[in-house]
Structure to design on (584 residues):
């Protein structure tokens, strides 16, 4: 192994478990280096690794984090059963080029007398926020905590969580974080299913039908390319397509919103994103696609 | 003028008005220096300047800020008439040893579509929070914004705003800000009145009676030194003392709370703080004193 310009050894990923140590390390690193943050909840797939690779190009030092954040799960959601694989994750992150893995525990992140929350209000109310009340408050709180402990110059998130990306961009702007957000494209399985740690919940037959969201979104994009701009008409077509692929899917929303502002669109355009959420055999799946 | 170890010229204070410029400057400074932040709302008095002097000793570079923060004023409070003196403030800060004055305007801090807020919940409900709903939400939000833009290693606040200090300590701990808070003692006029920009609202006769809060607090401390530990008894004595000095004072609260947790105390001890708020001739004054 040879030391590179970061004074680090390639493949020599350090794991940091304490917030205090992370803060100290970040303070030290930021004197000489730019820092990129890749926050994850673990159980990593190629989508996460593509974020690490983007981070690798965007800054000198890459800090990946794994923390299954309880405050972004609602009552009755899958916090307890959320899949975990520390050992596998560590190897994947190291191979993808992360320099540090920050992995605090929940007791440290949210001690008993914890009481501070960060909220981005309007953008958190709609879509996912309407079906998962409090979800984005948990996200903006934990991401703020990670921003503060890691002091990144750049942070990388996936486009799959489209609304999350919009909310976090607003958070960064509103709260004056000196951080550039990079939103990386959604990675998909061969049939088009968006990669997600939650796909692990699907049995093999269910897995085949889970492509219904992607197929619905593609239908919207095709129709838009053919000149259809009525959100109502597109919505009907997306619904039909989803239910053709997975007749038992319980669709929570099919929505057309502006890419930057989340404003709902009655007439769609190139900057409109179609996003969908559905329960597929008790697994809640989301996906989205820009029409243009 | 000669350049000192900070590469700055003493007395050569720079004013920064844009958030973006502040962020860039902070990123540059933090590579070589430690940074101390002194947030103020301007109309400076010796109390503020004592914070700058503390900051001067605590870090390489001192960034003072002046921003009359609209979100911490309630409807009907004195936001509009809050006293302002930019020119005087600038001279005072320069002489006290500030290196940078960060002075953004409200349109930049809270543009029309602003929607992100930071809240420290339980600690913000009591005392000032009960009489000024939303006040601490405004404080924790603006202080978070300043923390993010200035990236201080140290931030200095006054003990006069006792509850604010407790709330901000919790904010820093909960949100993992890598910042050390220094709480500087309350500066007082010769008769004991706590220095405050709001004292400027008082006419000369009113000014004399405004010492009532300090006199009440001293009475509590004397009685505690004599062995009285019943909060109810102390409260009665403080009220009596305040009204003897200023018979028209409208007392909002006289409260005995733990110095660290704000837990109300029935039996007081050395770590109990007595805090008072009263309207003195339409001017809202607060003050506090640790009993031990």
């Amino acid at each position: 192994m040879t030391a590179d310009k970061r004074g680090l050894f390639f493949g020599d990923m350090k794991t940091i478990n304490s917030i205090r140590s992370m803060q100290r390390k970040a303070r030290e690193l930021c004197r000489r280096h730019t820092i990129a943050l890749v926050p994850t909840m673990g159980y990593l797939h190629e989508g996460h690794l593509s974020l690490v690779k983007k981070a690798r190009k965007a800054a000198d030092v890459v800090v990946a984090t794994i923390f299954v954040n309880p405050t972004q799960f609602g009552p009755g959601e899958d916090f307890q059963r959320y899949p975990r694989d520390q050992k596998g994750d560590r190897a994947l992150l190291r191979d993808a080029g992360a320099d540090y893995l920050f992995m605090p525990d929940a007791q440290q992140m949210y001690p008993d007398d914890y009481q501070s929350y960060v909220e981005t209000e309007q953008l958190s109310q709609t879509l996912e926020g309407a079906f998962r009340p409090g979800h984005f408050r948990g996200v903006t709180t934990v991401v703020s905590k990670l921003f503060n402990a890691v002091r990144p110059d750049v942070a990388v998130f996936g486009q799959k969580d489209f609304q999350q990306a919009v909310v976090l961009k607003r958070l960064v702007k509103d709260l004056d974080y000196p951080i550039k957000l990079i939103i990386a494209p959604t990675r998909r399985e061969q049939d088009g299913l968006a990669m997600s740690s939650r796909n692990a919940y699907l049995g093999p037959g269910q897995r085949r039908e889970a492509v219904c969201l992607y197929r619905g979104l593609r239908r919207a994009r095709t129709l838009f390319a053919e000149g259809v701009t009525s959100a109502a008409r597109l919505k009907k077509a997306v619904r039909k397509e989803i239910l053709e692929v997975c007749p038992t899917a319980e669709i929570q929303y099919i929505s057309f919103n502006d890419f930057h502002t989340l404003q709902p669109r009655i007439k769609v355009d190139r900057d409109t994103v179609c996003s969908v959420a559905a329960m597929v055999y008790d697994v809640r799946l989301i996906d989205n696609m820009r029409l243009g």
Summary: The beta strands of chain A are 14-16, 35-40, 61-66, 100-102, 116-120, 154-158, 180-184, 250-258, 272-280, 283-290. The domain at 197-290 of chain A is CATH 3.30.1300.10 (Pantoate--beta-alanine Ligase; Chain: A,domain 2).
